[in-house]
Structures are given as structure tokens and as C-alpha cells.
Write a structure and sequence with these properties.
The protein has about 100 residues and is mainly α. The chain has one domain. Helix content is about 70%, strand content about 0%. The longest helix is centred in the first third of the chain and has 23 residues.
């Protein structure tokens, strides 16, 4: 038996936190990390598309591929706060669940 959470379980637990953290991180770190504005746009798209499809798995391969590219596979920059780190960790978990 696996402890791997499904995509729906992960999104249910992570989207609320991401919705709270992402805008704040964009405001605080956007000047020094302009790539985060694109991360924010992708996160908003992922949340919107996931909610739109309900229980079905949305088609988000392009969005996750772009996130991995922009974030260098969710590598946390050395000059950021814990919220920024949390966003990347949550996104990595959502991505992993999506790929499973």
C-alpha cells in the first residue's frame, strides 16, 4: 500500500495555502525574483483549471513543465522567506501528485 496522495487530495489540501501565499510572495519578492510573477500566473491557471474540471484530472502538462523550467525544478533561492520556500515545496508536491 502506498502513502502517495492523489492529485485531488493534494490540491484539496494545498490550493488554499497557495492561494494565500502566492500573492504575498509575489508582492514581497517580485522585484528581486521577477520570475515569480510567471509562477503566480501559472499557479492561478492550475487552480482555475483544476476547479473547472471537478473530479476529473485537468490537462496541465504544459503548465507543470513551465513551472519546473521557471523554478529550476522548484529550487528555492537562497534569499527568500519561509513563505516562498513553502510555495515551492507545495508546488513540487502538487506536481508530483499530478505526474503519478
Amino acid at each position: 500500500m502506498t502513502n502517495q496522495l492523489t492529485f485531488n487530495q493534494v490540491t484539496e489540501s494545498h490550493f488554499k495555502t497557495l492561494s494565500q501565499y502566492v500573492p504575498v510572495v509575489a508582492r514581497v519578492h517580485g522585484a528581486n525574483h521577477p520570475e515569480f510573477h510567471e509562477v503566480r500566473t501559472l499557479v492561478e491557471t492550475i487552480i482555475k483549471e483544476t476547479k473547472k474540471t471537478g473530479e476529473e484530472k485537468p490537462k496541465l502538462n504544459e503548465e507543470f513543465a513551465k513551472l519546473r523550467e521557471i523554478t529550476t525544478n522548484y529550487t528555492i533561492p537562497g534569499d527568500v522567506c519561509e513563505s516562498y520556500e513553502a510555495v515551492y515545496n507545495l508546488l513540487a508536491e502538487v506536481d508530483q501528485a499530478y505526474q503519478a
